[in-house]
UniProtKB/TrEMBL annotation:
Chain positions covered by the region annotation Disordered: 245-270
Record organism: Trichodelitschia bisporula
Designated name of the protein: Methyltransferase domain-containing protein
Start and end residues of each Methyltransferase domain: 140-345
Pfam families: Methyltransf_32
Length: 558
């Protein structure tokens, strides 16, 4: 299962070190990459003077884009074989038109060669999960869980063969425990410590465990004498509200009601075990969790742990990886991250995009500057200085990180058209706000439906809690009174520029794959910097087409 190289590289690179150095250099030296990957925002598209399109893209690119449909342009960016254009004698025509400019091909090639390969070639199909284990799962989740469970089990088996047996798997941010439930069930029989901070989610996961046959239904004793007396008196009891009233005498009561802070579920014969620990994860120190672990019947007294996580958001992935260095009992980690927009920043403040948009409190918190838990993790990325000089350290602002969760290779004609339409009307609404004096010009579904819906929200008739009362009143007065003809007029004025916005959005999404590569490679680099870590690698663990955040970061102690 161990890949030939530590990183899933494109064919352009044969070793990890040359790739990492090239990735760092490209991300810090390409002005166009930095512009498309965090330097512009779609809201500014119709509000800048001179216009954004002509400012950021070379004239020869714009002239060429004008000749082709957006579907052809997407094919060039994402799917077309570029070797034909990189030959000494490149073709002069492409799809009944002129060949793309050499500078455009060179940029697309530079981006592609620095993307991590997402091709998934499993040595064998994973065992099919039984229908009880998949309760509550979508088809996407079944695909993810079945492959990740098989990967984790294979990894623990290889560690056991190397005399490093794992006694428990720590599922970081376990949620509904889909992954843990699969690993505790046949054919894996693993012992799971499900760490989750939300009591109601834990309660729900326990209910699914019972339905899946992984845990026995608690036997709750009731005081039947008190119940019958209440019924005779004409009172219909509510078991949940009247637990104390109908509970049996203390000496005979069963301590099975209600969630406990940590409890080892009693599994049926032939199954692994699940123990839930309600714990708010704020760093990688697992001392409070480890002290609650009940030793498995067939395991040593001292647990040997592996931290796993499937799509842990933002800094939670960093915390999961750090368990390897902060806890002697943790012998290995296997972490699949997502939601890079929720990462905090270690080296500096976030780039704030203009407009009326209000950040959710959680987003505001993740944008805080100089957070030691944030990106980048590794010393190499934090201290990197470009060959030509410049600011120390790799930075990814909120716009770049939000774009990094795009999956342009999974776009279809319909889904990309929906993206373009939505962004066109949102950018157009920003133009309305500018002309009505609600926002200032930035420095350096139909449209009417969209505009009216947004105005209603901002004006306080929906979810406009992010705006002050003064702004809400201004929006209601200046925009809320617009006639239908006026709204439609805006769409007509800017309709010809819709394609320009679609081109820029596509370039941004494709370029942001480099940002995702930076996040993933930084995590791998951090593992390699840790004393005692013997092996570290990254590989795809399920199909990109099913779920695009498909890269697992693995670290193993010696």
């Amino acid at each position: 299962m161990r890949p030939k190289t530590d990183l899933p590289l494109s064919k352009e690179f044969t070793d990890d070190e040359s790739y990492v150095e090239s990735l760092l250099e490209f991300s810090t030296s390409s002005t166009l990459l930095q512009t498309l990957c965090g330097g512009v925002h779609i809201l500014d598209f119709f509000t800048r003077t001179p216009d954004l399109y002509s400012c950021i893209l070379p004239e020869e690119w714009r002239n060429w884009f004008r000749l082709f449909e957006i579907e052809d342009i997407l094919d060039l960016l994402l799917r077309e074989d570029l070797t034909q254009f990189l030959n000494p004698s490149p073709p002069q025509e492409w799809r009944s038109g002129p060949a793309p400019p050499h500078s455009l091909i060179a940029y697309i090639h530079s981006v592609r060669r620095h993307l991590l390969s997402r091709s998934f070639h499993p040595p064998a199909s994973p065992p099919k999960l039984d229908h009880l284990t998949t309760i509550g799962m979508t088809a996407k989740k079944i695909h993810e869980v079945s492959h990740v469970a098989h990967f984790v089990s294979t990894l623990t088996s290889s560690l056991a063969a190397a005399h490093q047996p794992i006694t428990h798997l720590i599922d970081f941010g376990s949620g509904h425990n889909y992954l843990g439930r699969a690993l505790a069930s046949p054919p894996y029989h693993e012992n799971i410590i499900a760490v989750e901070s939300r009591p109601h989610v834990v309660a729900g996961a326990r209910e699914i465990d019972i339905m899946a046959g992984l845990a026995e239904k608690p036997v709750v004793r009731r005081n039947k004498k008190a119940y019958r007396a209440a019924r005779a008196a004409g009172t219909v009891p509510d078991w949940e509200k009247d637990k104390a009233r109908f509970a049996p005498p203390a000496a005979a009561s069963s301590a099975t009601e209600g969630p406990q802070r940590a409890r080892l579920e009693t599994p049926p014969a032939g199954r692994g075990s699940v123990q839930y620990v309600e714990h708010r994860i704020q760093d990688g120190n697992l001392a409070a969790v480890i002290e609650q672990i009940a030793p498995a019947a067939d395991a040593a007294t001292t647990p040997a742990l592996m931290t796993i996580s499937l799509h842990s958001c933002g800094n939670l992935s960093h915390h999961a990886l750090r368990t390897l260095s902060l806890n002697p009992a943790v012998r290995a980690v296997a972490v699949i991250g997502c939601c890079y927009n929720l990462l905090t920043e270690r080296l500096g403040p976030s780039f704030k995009t203009p407009g009326l948009r209000h950040n959710h409190p959680r987003l505001s918190a993740t944008n805080s500057a100089f957070d030691p838990h944030g990106f980048p993790m590794s010393a190499r990325f934090a201290t990197y200085i470009p060959p030509g000089g410049g600011e120390e350290g790799i930075r990814l602002n909120i716009t770049a990180r939000m774009m990094a969760v795009q999956a342009p290779r999974n776009w279809t004609k319909d889904s990309s058209e929906a993206f373009f339409t939505r962004h066109f009307y949102r950018a157009l609404l920003q133009r309305v706000f500018l002309e009505k004096g609600i926002v200032e010009a930035p420095r350096g579904e139909g449209g009417g439906t969209y505009a009216r819906g947004a105005v209603e929200k901002i004006a306080g008739q929906g979810v406009g809690e992010g705006c002050s009362e003064e702004v809400k009143a201004m929006v209601a007065e200046r925009v809320g009174t617009m006639t239908s003809d006026e709204v439609v007029g805006y769409g007509e004025r800017f309709r010809e520029r819709r394609k320009e916005l679609s081109v820029v959005w596509s370039l941004m999404a494709v370029s942001a794959g480099v940002a995702e590569a930076l996040v993933v490679v930084d995590r791998w680099t951090w593992l390699r910097e840790q004393e005692g870590v013997k092996e570290a690698w990254v590989q795809p663990v399920f199909e990109y087409g099913e779920s695009p955040r498909n890269l697992v970061v693995v670290g193993i102690k010696g």
